[in-house]
Amino acid sequence: MNTTKKNNTTKIAIIGAGFGGIAMAIRLQQQGITDFIILEKSNDFGGTWRENQYPGAACDVQSHMYSLSYAPKADWSKRYAEAPEIFAYIQQLVKEFNVPAFTRLNTEVKAAHYDEKRCRWALTLNEDEQLEAQYVIFASGPLHVPQIPKISGIEKFKGKVFHSSQWDHSYNLTGKNVTSIGTGGSECYSVHSRNRSTMQTALCNAAHCSLGDST
C-alpha cells in the first residue's frame, strides 16, 4: 500500500525509508520543506532494522548514541539495543513526525538519470512509471542486498542454507551442527545467540579475529 498520492514531479526525492531517509524527511519538515517524497521498495519503514531479524541482531554502537539528537530515547533497555527495540524506535519516529504522508511504499527506483541541461533527475519506478525531481537523496544504504559468497558445490549440500538477513525462523537449529561464514557484525551477534542451542558452531573467516563481550 502506498501512503501518499502519486505525482510525476517533486522537488526532492529520497530513495530509501531506513534511518537515513526517515531522518532526512524529519529535517526537511523542520525546515519548512514539504515538497519531497520518500521512495521505498519494501512494504514498511526501517531499512536494515526491518530486514535483519536474525537471532541476536543488535546495534554495535551504544544505544543512546544510536538515536536522533532531536528525538532522543531515554529508556533503552540495554547498552547495545537489540533489533526489535531499534525497529520499534524507528516506527515511533515515523508516527511522531508524520513520515507516511510523504512516503510511497512498494515503490522501487529502477534507474536514475540526470539531465544536465534541465538540471533535473529522471527516475524510473515500478512498471516504468516516471518521476522528475530537482534533487535526489540516495539513502538506500549498502546493506539491502545480501552478500552471498560463491561456494563451489553448494548446490549439492543437503542441509539448510540461508543468509543472516534472510533468516528462516521456521527452521529449528537446536542440536544441529552449524557452519557460519564471515565475522561481520551480523555473524558475531548471531553466533553468540546460537551457541546456546546448537550442538556445535564452526566460524569461518579469511583472517584472524577475536570476539569480545558486548554486554
From TrEMBL:
Coiled coil spans: none
Source domain of life: Bacteria
Pfam families: Pyr_redox_3
TM regions (residue ranges): 12-28
Keywords, sorted A to Z: Membrane, Transmembrane, Transmembrane helix
Protein name: FAD/NAD(P)-binding domain-containing protein
